[in-house]
Amino acid sequence: MELYNSIIRKVEELAGSSTPRRCPYDPQGAWEDTGSFELVMLRDAAYELGGSSKPAVNFTCVTTSAQLVVRDEILVFGPDLTELRGDSAYARIALLRVGDIESDDEDDTEQAFRAIQDMDFVKYHVFPKGYMIRTSSESNREQVRLSSAALKKGISFRAVGNDFIRQYKQNPNILAVKLIFITAPDADYAALEQEAKTVRDITMSLSKILEGMPTDCGSCNLKPICDEVEGMRELHFGKEKHTTE
Predict the structure, then answer these.
(1) Predicted confidence (pLDDT) per residue in 172-229, tens digit
(2) Cα–Cα–Cα angle for 171, 207, 1, nearest 5°?
(3) Is residue 131 within 8 Å of residue 146, measured between CB atoms?
(4) CA 139, CA 4: separation in Å to the nearest integer?
(5) What is the Cα–Cα distance from 156 to 179, expressed in whole angstroms?
(6) Which residues contact 26 (CB under 8 A, 6 or more apart)?
(7) Are 38 and 147 in contact, with CB atoms under 8 Å apart?
(8) Residues with Cβ < 8 Å from 200, sequence gap 6 or more?
């Protein structure tokens, strides 16, 4: 599964000029997870990531490349949670390495693509204590309200990242996770938002292709994605071939 590779290669270039802090995954260092949505009232909040109409970008990319996602790790570009002094621009990007889940059998391939889409749903099942996440799949936003109590206890992106990765690792298809947090002032959030839109378009296109689409490129609304994303056109016509055989 290489459809997202070109996006994965761009991510760190868009994350700002600072050298990231790299932290290996440590499940024992995960922040406490409440197991369900916890409301953080505004009066109890220290600040918001993506607050005051600042950027708040989120997307997930899947690859089979061990070169692009080498190991389980957390990267932090910009100030950590205890270093921020107010509302901040923010991005959280999950890069997932999976096994060879593709197959020449059409039914197996469809199940593989469905599994890839399901991997993104992990973000709806992570509830770090004092770290209220509000996610919009339509706008690719993930806004976070951080409680003053969690800040006083020393919450960090490393601890929150460990919680996220622990949840991702429950899926046997996921072999490694590179989780990237960005608060750097010089990060290109507009470009990251555009990459998030491309990821969403690819995922939507996969769903449509699996349902069966015409091969007349001139009349197909997927043409811009096929032109932009390497491997999408081959997938499109390969699916059509299976359908007509």
Answers:
(1) 889 999 999 999 999 999 999 999 999 988 887 777 766 665 555 665 666 666 666 6
(2) 50
(3) yes
(4) 19
(5) 13
(6) 162
(7) no
(8) 59, 137, 140
